[in-house]
Amino acid sequence: MEITGAEASEQIYLSYRPLMFSLAYRMLGSVMDAEDVVQEAFLYANETNLDHVHNPKAYLCKIVTNRCIDNLRSASKNREVYIGPWLPEPLVTLSTDHQIAPDLAYSHKESLSTAYLLLLQQLSWVERAVFLLREVLQYEYDEIADIVGKSSANCRQIFRRAKNAISLPQEERASETKLPLKSQDVKQMTAVVEQFVQALVSGNIAQLLTIVKSDAILYSDGGGKVKAATNPILGAERIAMFLSGILAKLPEGYHANLMTVNEQTGLVAYVNNQPHNVMTFQLEDGQIKSFYLVVNPDKLKHLEIGQTEA
Questions:
Q1: Which of 48, 81, 114 is the last residue of a domain?
Q2: How are strands ordered across the β-sheet holding 287-294?
Q3: Is 138 part of any domain?
Q4: Strand 264-271 versus strand 274-284 pairing type
Q5: Is residue 110 part of a domain?
Q6: Checking phi first, is residue 90 left (phi over 0); if not, alpha (psi -120 to 50) or beta?
Q7: Considering the domain boundaries, does residue 190 fall inside one?
Q8: How high is the pLDDT of residue 186?
C-alpha cells in the first residue's frame, strides 16, 4: 500500500513530536510556548514539503531551535522586569502526549527537573541549544553545527563552555541551585514528600524540621499576578512558617495531589477544579534542599481541568 504525502507527514509528526517538544520545553521552560513552537515548526515543514528533506529529524530540530531562540529574544525584555523569582512552567504528566520514549537518549529525567531547567537559564540561547543537543539529545557536533549554523569546532567549544558554566561550585555561580548530577530516586522522593505533607498538615513543626535541611531555600513564582514571596526564603524555620501561613489561609474547595511533575514527585493543587499552585522539590542527603512553588496563574493555565489531556 502506497503511503501518501499527507500520511508520511503525519507519521513524521507522530514520530518526532515528543523529541521536538522535549527540546523546545528545555529551551523555553514553558509548556504552552513549547507546544506552539512545535506546532508552528511542523506547519512550516509541511509547507516546504518534507518528502524532499534528507534528514527530517535534524531539519525539524533546526526549525524548533531557531524558533525557540526567536521566542527567547522577544521575551527577554519581559524577563528583565519579571517580579520575583522566575520558575519554569510545571510539566505535569497526565497523558502520553509529552512522555518520552524509554529507548531514546534524551530520556534523562534529571534534565527535566526544575533545578536543571533553572541552571539552563544561566546559559546564552546558543549555549543552551548546543548544550541540550549534545548533552541531552546526544547529537554529534557535525549535526549540531548544521542545526545552529556554526562550525563543528565552534560547537565543541560552546558545549565545553556551557558545561563548565553550569558545573561550577555553588559559590562561583549566580544561582543557588546545585547541578543535579543524577536522577533523584523516585521512591525516596515520594516518601520524603509524603512525610513533608503529613507534617505540614498536622502542624508538626518539629517533624517538618527533620525533613527539611536547615539551609533549605524556597522559590515562589507569582509573576506579580498573585501574592507571592518576591525574594527566596532561606532556612528551614522560615520556610516552615511561610508554608504554615499559606496553609492557614487556603480557601474552601482546595485539594492537592501527589503527581509526576517534571519527571519527579510534586504537588499539584486545585481550588474548585481550577489550578492553584504546583510545588516541586530537590533532595539532598534524603532531605528537602529546595522548594519551587509556582502560583503564577499564567503558568498554570495548561493544567485547567478539561485541557490537561489535550
A1: 81
A2: 233-234, 212-221, 287-294, 274-284, 264-271, 254-261
A3: no
A4: antiparallel
A5: no
A6: beta
A7: yes
A8: 79
Q: Which residues contact 138 (CB under 8 A, 6 or more apart)?
A: 105, 106
The CATH number for 230's domain is: 3.10.450.50
The grid cell for 235 is 532556612
Can you tell me the mean pLDDT for 126-150? 92
Range of the domain at 21: 1-81
* CATH, residue 3: 1.10.1740.10
Residue 131 lies in a domain: no
Task: Please write the tens of the pLDDT for every residue from 211-246.
Answer: 999 999 999 999 999 989 999 999 999 999 999 999
pTM for the model stands at 0.84
| Residue 85's pLDDT band (cuts 50, 70, 90) | very high
Q: How many helices (H) and strands (E) does the chain have?
A: 10, 6
Look at 44-48, 118-122, 208-212, 243-247 and tell me which has the smallest mean pLDDT. Answer: 44-48
> Is residue 113 a contact partner of residue 54, using CB atoms and an 8 Å limit?
no
